[in-house]
Design a protein that fits this description.
It is built from 14 helices and 11 strands. By secondary structure, the chain is an alpha/beta fold. It has a 5-stranded parallel beta sheet. Strands 2-1-3-4 form a 4-stranded parallel beta sheet, covered by helices on one side. It is elongated. The mean pLDDT is about 95.
């Protein structure tokens, strides 16, 4: 069995299982890629111990907390770890590499497993994620797909990916389509930290010798903010502009947002967020169409009065190389047309 000295982030791959010993809510916010959550204290127990610490001091908090930790460790040994062989090598971490992961490592080593503790815990890993984004983002060989809302940019990324191209789908990672109507039904957005962890994993996997296709985004995708080094790289990278007719875009939007017709009143409520950006009578007309499920006239006007002017303003201000963009004409944006488009885009040097 190897020495029980905390191990660095560069050694994570040498372990069979990565165990997050923090509470479920901390784990949900963000965790190491592939980690499993085996809390030594759950959220309520953590609250109780914290209160005891404040009111009665460290000894009382440790006495009560120690019993809770022992009970939780016993449960993990009986359930989660019951079928692990003697050769199992788990790596355990908590917030800072302190008592929570330390106590679990001690117990697992007493059993006979070669358990180790991650030096610096999640906090050190979080610093590593930020450093990775800052180091890799400025080197990314990005090709930025531009075009107003309804140009099928996300669907094009998927088509490029199927053809073997490297793709960075930021809206996929952010679980949001990036527009006022961009909420994905039934799926909340990840936390900012979770988004950044998943982004760092993706960036590390790219071959920087080959292009990486990405969609033009503003700084915010729903509630998620793009890290500044990535945003700066996006805005300075060469652009490929999708040029499609308003009819083709409208047909695409009606397919892409078909689910918005399922809940007219909710759609009308979302459109209310445009107050101040559009005339009150325009919004009232849009809300009436939303409630009636009339998506075609609604999206036609949203494109003409909201999305297109917004695109013209933001792109010209933000994307320095849009004026020299290679333009790709799209007569249609159905699935077959997107496959052809993707092939054409990947052949642009």
């Amino acid at each position: 069995m190897s020495h029980n000295r905390p191990v660095g982030i560069d050694q994570i791959a040498a372990f069979d299982t990565v165990i997050d010993a923090r509470s479920p809510s901390e784990f949900a916010l963000d965790h190491l890629p592939g980690a499993i959550n085996c809390p030594v204290l759950d959220d309520e127990e953590r609250r109780i111990v914290g209160t005891l610490y404040k009111q009665q001091g460290a000894f009382e908090a440790r006495r009560v907390g120690g019993a809770m930790v022992a009970a939780n460790l016993a449960k993990h040994l009986r359930e989660r770890f019951a079928d692990q062989p003697a050769t199992w090598r788990p790596l355990v971490y908590c917030w800072r590499g302190g008592m929570r992961s330390g106590s679990m490592v001690q117990w697992l080593r007493l059993v006979g497993w070669d358990a180790q503790q991650l030096a610096g815990g999640y906090k050190r890993f979080r610093g590593h994620v930020i450093a990775q984004i800052e180091a890799i983002a400025p080197q990314l060989p990005l090709r930025v797909l531009c075009g107003p809302t309804g140009s099928a940019k996300t669907a094009l990324l998927h088509a490029l990916s199927v053809q073997g191209a490297q793709v960075l789908d930021l809206e996929g990672l952010a679980v949001h389509k990036g527009s006022v109507l961009g909420k994905v039904p039934g799926t909340p957005q990840p936390s900012q930290k979770r988004f950044e962890t998943q982004l760092a994993v993706q960036l590390q996997a790219f071959d920087l010798g080959r292009p990486v296709y990405v969609e033009s985004e503003s700084r915010k995708i729903g509630q998620i903010s793009l890290p500044t080094p990535l945003l700066e790289r996006l805005r300075a990278s060469p652009c490929i502009e999708i040029v499609a007719s308003p009819e083709a875009r409208l047909d695409y939007l009606l397919r892409d947002y078909v689910y918005l017709g399922d809940d007219g009143p909710r759609l009308a409520e979302t459109l209310g967020q445009l107050h101040g950006l559009q005339a009150n009578e325009t919004i009232a007309r849009w809300q009436a169409w939303a409630v009636a499920g009339e998506l075609r006239p609604l999206f036609a006007e949203l494109m003409a009065l909201h999305y297109d002017p917004l695109y013209a303003r933001s792109q010209n201000g933000n994307y320095q190389r849009l004026k020299e963009a290679r333009q790709v004409e799209a007569a249609s944006l159905d699935e077959a047309a997107l496959v052809v488009l993707a092939t054409g885009i990947s052949s642009i040097p």
